[in-house]
Target: Mitochondrial protein cyt-4
Amino acid sequence: MMLQGSARPYVCLRCLHASRHASLPRQPSFRAQYQALTATVNAHRAYKTERKPFRYNSGKNGSRYESKKSQAWREASDIRERLRDWEAKNHDTARTLLEDQPFSEKLGNFLTRSQTARTYAEDTSLKTPTADLFDGDILTDLRAQTSALQPGDLVETRFGGNSIPILGVCLGRHRGNQWFFMNTGEVLAYNSLPTLFTVINYVDPAEFQDIVRILPEQPPTRPRNVLAHTHTPEALEESALLQEKLVKFYADAVSIGQNALFYLDRASVVVAHDTEPSYLSLEELADRVLPDFMKRGGKLPPHTLYALHLALQRDGWGARPVNLRWHRRNYIYEIQPKSDIELFSSVLGKVRKLVDGAAMRDDPGKSTSLLRQNDLGRFIVKARAAIQASRTRRAYTTHGMIGPATEPVAKFPDWNGDDLKFIRFIELWACRRVSPEASRVDSLASTILRLTKMYEGSSWVAHWTGFTFLQEIGWIPPWDVAARYDYRFPGATVGRGQPIVRQKVDIEASMRDDIAAGARMDWGDVKVFCVDSAQTADVDDGFSIERTDKEGEYWLHIHIADPASRIKPNSPFAEYMEAVPASLYLAGFPEKMMPEKVEKQFSLNPGFPTLTFSARINERGEVLDHSIKPGTIHNVVHMTQEEVSSVLPGASPSESNPLFAVGTEPPSPGPVKVITTADQLTAQDKDDLVLMHRLSKALRDRRVEKGQVSVAQDRKPALTVSMDSVKSHKDVSDASASISWSGDPYIKLSQKTMTEADRLVETMMHTAGEVAATWCQARDIAVPYSTQPDASHNADALQALRQEALEPLAADGKPIPAVIIEQLYTLIGTSELSSRAAPFYSVGLDAYAKASSPLRRYTDLIVHWQIHAALARERETGTSLVGTDCSEADFLPWTRSVLDPKLPVLQARQRQIREVDNRDGASQWLFQALLRAWKFGEAPLPKTFDFEVLSVPHYGVRGKLLNFFGITAIIPLSQLSERTKLSGREPGEVLQVRISDVNVVTMVVEVTPLLEEKVVEAEGETVEDVVVA
Model:
């Protein structure tokens, strides 16, 4: 029996009775409580309950009915017979009730299922098409989340939109799977478990070896819990101990959270900037928010950090994790500025007020008197007029993008200050997604759109509808790429229809005299080959060859642009580049890491400085010696990959079909530099290129023996986007005006294969990274080394996979199946930046530090700065630093203790750039092209698509379109008959489908299968069983 109370929504009658007679102890001060909580291992609040049967009105006088009378009454009752008789007369087939589980992944059901955890074997996001559709370093950057975990690590995860935290202990990778013991008492396998919080080495792996011994070869199903299928007394005992540790950890965190509420609930407010977002790690937030007396030994205990983490998760607007996919352990949080928080509160209050008034009218959206009562209503009227004007030129679609047009919109309304606040609110919701999915912002923002009465035909009025709304009112371009709003950099914002907008920096004040002046080697007439696109202006690498006195041995010289010699480390310009630590190459919105004028000072050309990484090798690909020297090059030859490939042995493939394009093709752009063709090379030049190609192949063969892999080289589409046909009809930089665009981008996709020139350049750049890492390792200099710690732990499994699967397929010239590639990536694990050298399996090197792109990548600049400082020291002292521990040397720009905390932030920023540029952003261009072809007929499409099944999650059948660049698609449950057999679908099956829906923002393609009817005999009657063809 439940009673409604005033303080709590529902209170158990028994608890209410007990609470009225309970005495409340006096609460000590928070400082005393905290010290007591953390003084000993067992110092946490323990709760004991006695489970006794409860009878209402029980007591000394006994129950209302005596036991004999109750027994007699039950024996005389005929209720069972009456129920059986009713059941016989009212027999009906049992029907499955409609579940409140969403039929697709478009939106979650946060109203009635906010506390329900998913336990699928595969929690795959549909937002990402296939793994890295476009050129990107997938071997080093896009790993499974769990690959960075080690046995004994404590993790927190949440399934889908669930608000309940699930704690677990990583049991390690065994038999090809990553296993976890969860605080639900289950032992589960996950290949990609998103981890929101991690405590390293929380449990000694020796404490769960009995659980490890019972792990099966293949993860069980129905249920997935290993302990439900097999267990031993020892395994159950260890499980109980692990669960006790997890319960204690959570209880300690909750206790801290309750007692430190004053500090935790104000966390985002305390650190928020007035007008600019801030980006802080959990540890940085804790240092700023929590008092020093909470520290133990100068550090906050893990459960205290977790209490802050839980508090930030409850903060709907103030603090949001930047993006889970960009991190491997703990979050980096985006702290919203106070101005945006105030804006949210203000707009939400006005929406509620308008909704309250709307409740008194039958059709509030058409009530002009209602809408003109306040500034929000007046904005809705203006927005409606803007949308109507837009639709005279561009068709509205429900697919997250409006249609193409050749003429601009004649007139948009003028927006006042109040209007701009509402537009900013919609932008924060629809573009920047700063509110959590389950936030009330979703419903109230969509209410604004519904009141315009312009989206009544839409099944969903969600954030992608808000993105379309901003396009229709002329606030963002009709072809804008939603993914680019995922850029999160300090001091930078995404511009309207233009690249990111950044604050200016004094470059001249950050320059210095050449640190290598007087020590540069003059390369004279040595011919340096720079191989790149004819349109590439930032040329930062070239290579040459030198024959030695010993036959069969050669010096390979990789000449790298040398901006580090002139730019001061730790200068304002260096900090400017650190904030956006790589050039942005998202098609249509490029942004260089260095300003163009600085880039031109150092891009490789005759008479320009270089830092040259040299390796002495033999014909077997063995590196015999190495050196690094600053120098000046004079004889520079710029060539394209196609021209170099025509000189080298082997096929020189060109763009191959299928070719897919929408829009008006622009004229071919001219080269930005003088390009040398193969015909212009001398015989000696061609011999040098062929020799370097042969030596690079020997180097690759040697690295393959150590694990180098190149399995993704033939599946990356080349994306070209041209804005030549696009015109804006207002100043794009005008912050308060709508802009009308005419014309649409030209989007072209074509499948390309890796050329011999590409392989040559790749090997040379890897060689430069090997030389840089080996040179720094010999001096114990801290630089951003690329490492793959999991590959070392999984060496035996990797070797078996190579011998049993990869090498036989490669020998037969067959493509590597996606499932084997996924197994390979899972075993290799994530790539991590470290200040200590370690093997890098993907390129088959014992040590590797990227050093070939200082004009485009900030971590490469760090490597150059450290090397220049060490070279200067060696010149100054006249002695080599080989064998010297320089990790904390004061002559280096960064010591190891200073560099270590920088690397996780740099890595997170670099990952977000790759996610946007190579993955989500590039894929959204593809989806735009697909929509324009499918909806507006701008390009031919296949009548049916070949759909390869990848998995069968709860929302339908997930697969990829084999004859359209392999993009991910789903067959939702709504497109299937009620009697469709999902359980019979196996990965690898190929079905024939047609497109039924495309969402450009969420990157989801829904398809409809072509059905066949299969007649199945069942108990003497004929049943038509619909199966997916």
In short: The CA atoms of residues 396 and 402 lie 5 Å apart. The radius of gyration is 32 Å. The chain has 28 helices and 33 strands. The chain has a mean pLDDT of 83.
